[in-house]
Recover the amino acids of this structure.
């Protein structure tokens, strides 16, 4: 039986034999359907009845439905249900030390006695304040205590509801049940893990074998190992290699005084401790990257864990290493209204290193920004329906949460919004988390997979599409502008067809398998587990503002607007500490008429802009750039920036008027050329009209061949 890779926990996959709680019922997952990779077979645990459900239906629920729960075992499912529907369960006191139980009983007695005495004092003398009464009660105890001690006891009492077992358990030290290891021992164990265990399946050794290597190494070195405290920030790599190389006599190392002073005697931890540490290391995001980097530095991590240079061969499962990048398409598009304004679109792609599959994509007018990378992530995480909406029949079954997402050092990739998204998408450990890995500057080879994909895509675009840029000179750009006839939706559909064709094309680096077949092969571990796409989860993919807001009498203030909703009246405004409650908000730059409010990472509701409310009760759509442009016009006119809303309506009316004038002018200019258009039925406009949306086109190859033929006619 093949083993699961280290940084791919089995609970992040839906596999046969796992369990599911959905719509009030508990199910067991049965073997999947080889003919339909997005169809799950379920067995009701209560009745034994079997049914089938599509993944799209499972992960897309309405606001009134409960989110499904997934677990690898029935016991784990029951634990998750108990967590979702909690009930007070007393802590067992059998395993707790008698001293802690005695201390907890003393805390409960002190809090209850002080509360009773303080209440009696306040009843007898109404002039005495509450704090004074508590201080007097603390002084009249048989064993008097300070006021600060009482408050500490009271916090424990209130936090655990006066339960003796829970209070006793809370009194344990934070390092309870953890062995004390010095830095040299930890460095030795980390070296064993990174060298012999944190590898691909072909190179990884069993835990017992790794432990025996440690025993043999210390036996050869007489129990001596590198002391990081003596080495400082730079651990000598040559000495480390000599200690691990059994062919080098250890006495030769001891004969060197400079090397000998860096060694110290250590003992190998027990096998049980080593296994427990190994399990803890596996559960760390990015296979302990943050832990290893904090201990020994980023350069040491890259040297020991050469992800960048060997990700293609090291990837053992889908979603292990995913690469994201952006590309400015080498083709001009035209606007739908006038068919004359030229634009170039940006394509963002997420590529899986294991299967070479395109995990997700997005096409946008804007240059790479927070929205483009977060939109591509949303398209990648959940089962895809975008190609089905376009009528494309091929399968595109890859989806899931990337474990390590490799990005360049663009500003958008380090934005607060993306950092928050990758942190909360795991929902506190219920699902896999995303570890962002930034490629070093001026190291293009670290993104070789996705760059090569863009190169192949660019070749197809330049060869087949009208309006493509086939050179960098002015003449080529002018010719491309004259040939341009495709709309946004045309490019969007064509990219889907090209990507789906790529998904089902054999790849020589995959041993002749297609990316779809390679992904299906990796899917034998189970189907990726992702959170349900509820409204609260969907709003995580909006741009989050890093500055918090408070709820005032006018609502939530942002973008010089006041946002309000009936739900604001039920939200907390002042916390228990007497300070205003802070809320973060997310928004969509193309429509700032609505904000999504978050408190402590949880979505609490949406609010709409009061100033943008229309007479019919709806809200006017307003983009962020329109708001900024209107503010600038208001300042130039000498008015207040708060008068910018009038400019928004003025700009809207002026734009409609100028657009109608432009259309009329184009119609007047087109009248003399009516006969010429009829004489050339294969013009670029005819080609676009005949090809785009042609339901009789069998596949994208014929579609692109039509573009190629039309392009040659236009050029002639």
């Amino acid at each position: 039986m093949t083993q699961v890779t280290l940084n791919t926990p089995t609970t992040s996959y839906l596999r046969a034999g796992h369990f599911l709680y959905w719509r009030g019922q508990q199910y067991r997952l049965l073997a999947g359907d080889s003919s339909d990779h997005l169809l799950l077979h379920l067995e009701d645990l209560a009745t034994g009845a079997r049914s089938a459900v599509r993944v799209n239906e499972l992960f897309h629920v309405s606001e009134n439905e409960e989110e499904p729960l997934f677990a690898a075992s029935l016991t784990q499912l029951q634990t998750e249900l108990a967590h979702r529907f909690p009930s007070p369960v007393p802590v067992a006191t059998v395993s707790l030390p008698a001293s802690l139980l005695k201390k907890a009983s003393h805390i409960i007695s002190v809090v209850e006695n002080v509360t009773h005495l303080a209440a009696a004092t306040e009843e007898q003398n109404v002039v005495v304040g509450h704090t004074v009464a508590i201080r007097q009660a603390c002084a009249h105890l048989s064993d008097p205590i300070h006021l600060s001690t009482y408050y500490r006891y009271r916090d424990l009492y209130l936090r655990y509801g006066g339960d003796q077992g829970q209070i006793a358990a809370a009194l344990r030290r934070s390092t309870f049940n953890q062995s004390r290891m010095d830095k040299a021992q930890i460095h030795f164990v980390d070296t064993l893990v990174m060298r012999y265990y944190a590898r691909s399946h072909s190179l990884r050794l069993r835990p017992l074998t790794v432990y025996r290597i440690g025993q043999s190494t210390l036996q050869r070195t007489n129990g001596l190992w590198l002391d990081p405290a003596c080495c400082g920030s730079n651990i000598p790599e040559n000495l480390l290699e000599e200690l691990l190389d059994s062919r080098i006599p250890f006495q030769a190392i001891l004969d060197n005084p400079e090397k000998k002073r860096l060694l110290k005697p250590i003992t190998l931890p027990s096998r049980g401790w080593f296994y427990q540490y190994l399990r803890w290391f596996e559960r760390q995001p990015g296979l302990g990257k943050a832990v290893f980097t904090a201990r020994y530095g980023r350069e040491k991590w890259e040297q020991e864990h050469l992800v960048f240079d060997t990700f293609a061969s090291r990837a053992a499962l889908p979603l292990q290493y995913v690469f994201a990048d952006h590309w400015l398409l080498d083709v001009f598009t035209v606007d739908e209204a006038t068919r004359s304004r030229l634009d170039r679109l940006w394509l963002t792609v997420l590529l899986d290193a294991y299967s070479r599959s395109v995990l997700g994509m997005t096409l946008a007018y804007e240059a790479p920004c927070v929205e483009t990378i977060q939109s591509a992530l949303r398209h990648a995480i959940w089962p895809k329906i975008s190609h089905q909406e376009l009528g494309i029949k091929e399968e595109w079954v890859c989806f899931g949460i990337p474990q390590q997402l490799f990005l360049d050092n663009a500003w958008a990739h380090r934005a607060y919004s993306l950092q928050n998204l990758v942190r909360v998408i795991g929902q506190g450990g219920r699902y896999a988390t995303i570890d962002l890995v930034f490629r070093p500057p001026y190291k293009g080879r670290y993104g070789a997979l996705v760059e090569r994909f863009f190169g192949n895509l660019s070749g197809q675009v330049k060869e087949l599409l009208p309006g493509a840029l086939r050179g960098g000179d002015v003449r080529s750009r002018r010719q491309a502008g004259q040939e341009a006839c495709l709309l946004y939706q045309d490019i969007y559909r064509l990219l889907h067809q090209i990507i789906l064709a790529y998904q089902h094309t054999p790849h020589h680096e995959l041993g002749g398998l297609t990316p779809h077949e390679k992904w299906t092969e990796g899917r034998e571990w189970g189907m990726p587990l992702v959170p349900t796409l509820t409204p609260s989860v969907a709003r995580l993919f909006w741009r989050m503002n890093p500055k918090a807001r408070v709820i005032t009498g006018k609502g939530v203030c942002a973008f010089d607007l006041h946002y309000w909703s009936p739900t604001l009246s039920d939200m907390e405004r002042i916390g228990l500490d007497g300070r205003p409650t802070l809320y973060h908000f997310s928004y969509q730059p193309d429509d700032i008429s609505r904000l999504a409010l978050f408190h402590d990472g949880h979505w609490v509701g949406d609010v709409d802009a009061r100033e943008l409310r229309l007479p019919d009760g709806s809200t006017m759509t307003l983009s962020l750039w329109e708001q900024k442009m209107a503010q600038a016009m208001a300042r130039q006119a000498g008015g207040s920036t708060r008068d910018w809303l009038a400019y928004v309506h003025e700009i809207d009316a002026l734009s409609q008027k100028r657009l109608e004038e432009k259309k009329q002018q184009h119609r007047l200019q087109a009248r003399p050329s009516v006969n010429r258009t009829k004489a050339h039925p294969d013009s670029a406009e005819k080609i676009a009209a005949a090809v785009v949306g042609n339901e009789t086109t069998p596949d994208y190859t014929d579609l692109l061949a039509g573009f190629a033929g039309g392009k040659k006619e236009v050029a002639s």
